[in-house]
Amino acid sequence: MATATATATATVADAGAIYETFGGCVIGSPGGIDMHRVILHSDMNAFYASVEQAERPELRGVPLVVGGHEETRHGIVLAKSAQAKAAGVKTGEALWEARAKCPGLVVVPPRYDVYQRYSALARRIYYQYTDLVEPFGLDECWIDLTGALALSTRAPLDVAREISQRMKDELGCTVSVGVSWNKVFAKFGSDLRKPDAVTAITPENYQQLVWKAPVGELLYVGRATRAKLHSSGVDTVGDLACASPELLRRRLGKVGLVLRAFARGEDATPVKPFDPTRNEVDRTVKSFGNGLTCPHDIVCAADAKALIYLLAESVAQRLREARFRASTVSIGVRDAHDLTSYGRQTTLPRATNTTGQIARMAWELLSANEPLDEEHPLRGLHVRASNLEPMDAPQQLDLGFDARRRVLEDLDETIDDLRRRFGNTCIQRGVELMDESLLDLDVKRDNVVHPVGYF
């Protein structure tokens, strides 16, 4: 992470043009972009760990990690406190590695229902400033204050600091807040200084703060993209901003031009309001999926089928909750020997959200591609439904009407109602009981789904 700190006191409303030479590239303020927008990005620091410490005073000030269940082979660090971070503990490493670094480490299991409640409480604070609040995961939100501040004399940084203080006072959690005229730079600002900081990325300082940072610090520049850019001599955000559009199109396709616009501060993406009735922001959902690392290697067809149906249950239930049908079913398979993965998919003649049909198609894909024996053990599986259409969209009917399809849809609706009232494990399919290690798993509850797509 870049180590520079923001020292400018000008607000993002000061949009005077600047022209500087950066590595031979002469550029001014982003052309055609409204630089009077005021966008905040609020990121709750060490979210899971902070919530646990806020809920349990005895855990405050001690090295703490929220960790997965070791007995089900999910024993990794999901979140760490500041004290654990100071001892060298890293998110994603195995719990045994974390304990070796920090002998006094306290490990607590995740409580997703509590984290969702704190996420909602945080949004409740944001809503007191504007209705334009867009979640980016449970612990992050963009907040558009442009219209709200147009009716006020308050400065954006003052509002950001007030929100930061209220999060500490009312929730017991700290946040890092970035302030800028676009969503990408606002997120960069919240990532730049952690924890408990407010950073402004302005038209006057973005070339000093953003352009000098490694290109991997920019939103959506991942490991593979960073490697491609490096092979073309693009190592900083400034390099990306000044790179030839033709080069980027050739190396990365259309996304290369999008990333170049991000680097130049030309992101005009609006903050999309949160819809609490759908538990997601107003964007096009492209797929629903669920995957799981099995508590043991999968070495027989019975265990594989149990897991496939368990995952398909979650996927189909989410489809129905969001009022979608899917016409493409895909699976992901992870090998237990070398942890390599691959995927397969099939397209249905008619979109569906019935659990039985999605599970059957996923099972057919798996059984057609895997021997499912001890010589070819599998570590994990994934089921995904895509090619979505709304449930109220008209469907072409077959001449021979399938009455059983309507019966299956009604059955799924009844099961969904029972699970809403009594929990997801109140009723299970017989095939899911074939692997005893899966009996206590609730993959829908324990795999939190939240909007993370940007486009």
From TrEMBL:
PROSITE patterns: UMUC. Residues 39-222 form the UmuC domain. The record marks 48 as: Substrate discrimination. It holds the Pfam family IMS_C. Mg(2+) binds at residues 43, 139. SUPFAM superfamilies: DNA/RNA polymerases, Lesion bypass DNA polymerase (Y-family), little finger domain. Gene3D superfamilies: 3.30.70.270, 3.40.1170.60, 5' to 3' exonuclease, C-terminal subdomain (1.10.150.20), DNA polymerase, Y-family, little finger domain (3.30.1490.100). InterPro entries: DNA/RNA_pol_sf, DNA_pol_Y-fam_lit_finger_sf, DNA_pol_Y-fam_little_finger, DNA_polymerase-Y, DNApol_IV, IMS_HHH_1, Rev_trsase/Diguanyl_cyclase, UmuC. Coiled coil: none annotated. Its cofactor is Mg(2+). The keyword Cytoplasm applies. Keywords: Cytoplasm, DNA damage, DNA repair, DNA replication, DNA-binding, DNA-directed DNA polymerase, Magnesium, Metal-binding, Mutator protein, Nucleotidyltransferase, Transferase. It catalyses: DNA(n) + a 2'-deoxyribonucleoside 5'-triphosphate = DNA(n+1) + diphosphate. The keyword Acetylation does not apply. CDD domains: PolY_Pol_IV_kappa. Its main location: cytoplasm. It is an enzyme of class 2 (transferase). Binds 2 magnesium ions per subunit. The active site is at 140. It is found in: Cytoplasm. Its EC number is 2.7.7.7. Poorly processive, error-prone DNA polymerase involved in untargeted mutagenesis. Copies undamaged DNA at stalled replication forks, which arise in vivo from mismatched or misaligned primer ends. These misaligned primers can be extended by PolIV. Exhibits no 3'-5' exonuclease (proofreading) activity. May be involved in translesional synthesis, in conjunction with the beta clamp from PolIII. HAMAP family: DNApol_IV (MF_01113). Belongs to the DNA polymerase type-Y family. Monomer. This is DNA polymerase IV. It comes from Gordonibacter faecis. The gene is dinB.
